[in-house]
């Protein structure tokens, strides 16, 4: 039932956006001011993704087959599909109300009320599908039905929701996050475009029986794993499981007490952290740890201190294209940035080292829902570019959803491993980490 997983992922994304818009509506009401660029970007996302793709996938595939298999589904589907048909009209009315408000023909309070009603309708729609439709579909549809539906949902060549369309949706979401107010987003005035490329499957990193201690306490108890080129590997587990210690051991910041690390064909177990960085292991640390008094640009340049000087300016522009807010504020102290902006700076600083392997430690920690989604969109884009990534996250579902493979850590041991999809579907993982 891959189609259901995809739809539920999309629902989580839309729910995050709805929560964000409710926060923005409260700010609009207090300040009596509307931001047409941000709201316009949100409406564009709703139009192209929700009305143009999400609803269409459900109508043409899942809902169509469900009507054939269930007599009781008809009235429920009639209502939901009527809401699908009315959605573009409702969104157009909201766009017109925004235009009227900006032109002085309507009030901000009226726009806020209309926006809240629109969002409540969207959330009620999602609740109904999750509560009524998907359990029914799971019960009555046959294996052959799901095979047909999944094939349509996973068709990468489909012009409406294939791989090219998904990349466009990520760009639209990136624009929303970039234009959102600082309180919920990146707080920029423009949004850059991200590029993609390919990768191979050669083993890049091999860790064997790695141990690390804090005094007499053994934090890692014989970790063995590997990362292939172009792969995204997720480390999931509760706070204190050893995820940060493991990443710090890979980068050389935390001493090893036993084991071996082979990176790009070389045993680096005894190399200092700076030498590991020169070989291409770059880390975005937990808690971001930007240099607050230094400017944003100086923070980024520090990330490139091992690189030839002639390439730094070009790399800076690539980071600025990826995170326009950093370019807008590049002369300001890094400590003046919001949490989400600092996270983008920390990732950008790591990328300035031109990593062969990027270590991301809890990149979504403490961020607003909109920015959680944007951080994982950045990870998806880096993955599409062929970047090799080790991602340590407490947000297990989001990490495993984009990972090629995952490892579950508990008190310094790997207790489970498998593909991201296998771990998401594992009952033990779902109960312990996904709240299911």
Automatic annotation (TrEMBL):
PROSITE patterns per UniProt: ABC_TRANSPORTER_1, ABC_TRANSPORTER_2
GO biological process: L-amino acid transport
UniProt xrefs under Gene3D superfamilies: nmb1532 protein domain like, P-loop containing nucleotide triphosphate hydrolases
SMART domains hit by this protein: AAA
GO molecular function annotations of the record: ATP binding; ATP hydrolysis activity; branched-chain amino acid transmembrane transporter activity
Pfam families linked: ABC_tran, Hemerythrin
Residue ranges of every copy of the ABC transporter domain listed in the record: 205-436
Entry keywords, A to Z: Amino-acid transport, ATP-binding, Cell membrane, Membrane, Nucleotide-binding, Transport
Entry similarity comment: Belongs to the ABC transporter superfamily.
PANTHER family listed in its UniProt record: HIGH-AFFINITY BRANCHED-CHAIN AMINO ACID TRANSPORT ATP-BINDING PROTEIN LIVF
Name by which UniProt lists this protein: ATP-binding cassette domain-containing protein
